[in-house]
Amino acid sequence: MRVGIDVSSVVYGTGVSDYVINLVQHLPSDVLVPFGFSLRRFSELKRLVLKGVTLPFPPTLMHYLWNHLHVINVETFTGPLDIYHSSDWTQGPSRAKKVTTVHDLSPFLYPAETDPQIMAVHTARMKWVVKECDKITCVSNSTAADLQRLFSVPSSKISVIYEALPSKYLSLKPQITKNVNYVLAIGARQGRKNTDRLKAACAKLGQKLIIAGEGSELGYVSDQDLVNYLAGASAFIYPSLYEGFGLPILEAFYYQVPVACSNTSSLPEVGGDAAVYFDPLSVESIATGITQAIKDRDRLIAAGTQQLAKFSWETTAQQTLQVYKSLV
């Protein structure tokens, strides 16, 4: 079996980047043909993809060739394949059996919050995904249900395979500032991140809140700084209205921080019995959740350690490999 997997996203430092890096690291190397495209970050791509095919093509070109014209087979770059595992950005034509991963469907659920260019890319790609992919792996049951509802994809084509904690966190040791009482959230400009209600809830409690992420007081922070802020927090609060998986919950579990999060989308799947849940549309409910998470700190930390153990890249890779094998 020869599996071509598009790893173009590894240069961006996103959750999808972490997924691709960790999946490739845990799949059998003798069956994989990693390949990727980049122009401005080509040297970085070559450094990250040591054993694979890297080409100095801009993503916009590949979007046009693959998502719009749908020409030039993947095998032109990789040689013959049994399986083609596409990225979340482009869906190229191929003679192989086709697999892709859907991480979340926020562009389609919250189109007003999505950049029009990004929306156009996802729309064009999903047309080919629905038409041509033999299997679609989804990172949560919530995302799988959204895929069926929005695109009428039959359940027989879908496999739910959870993500896990990215390996980069295993080597990041927190440097904690002592005696600072705050709760941490990760936010962005999108309304679905629900930071306005979170701010109102914290103001109601008189609780100091730190938000990291695009458009926040801190803005983007390095992985090390995020770990520092996370490990020093009284609780991690995740008030998002929608997430495809909710990886920061696992990060909080790893650094032994109690979690309070929304009772929506994929978050209860990730948090299990180890998080406090609230209605993200209610400031009062969010405030109650924050209070409960801080109060039940010891119990939640112990439960979080147990919940984290349910997610592993070994399992993710094994289940993904079974999807490949089912098609050949």
UniProtKB/TrEMBL annotation:
Name recorded for this polypeptide: Glycosyl transferase group 1
Keywords tagged on the record: Transferase
Domain Glycosyltransferase subfamily 4-like N-terminal: 15-162
Glycosyl transferase family domain sequence ranges: 178-299
Example GO molecular function: glycosyltransferase activity
Record keyword Transferase present: yes
Keyword Transferase included in the entry's annotation: yes
One GO-annotated biological process of the protein: lipopolysaccharide biosynthetic process
SUPFAM superfamilies (alphabetical): UDP-Glycosyltransferase/glycogen phosphorylase
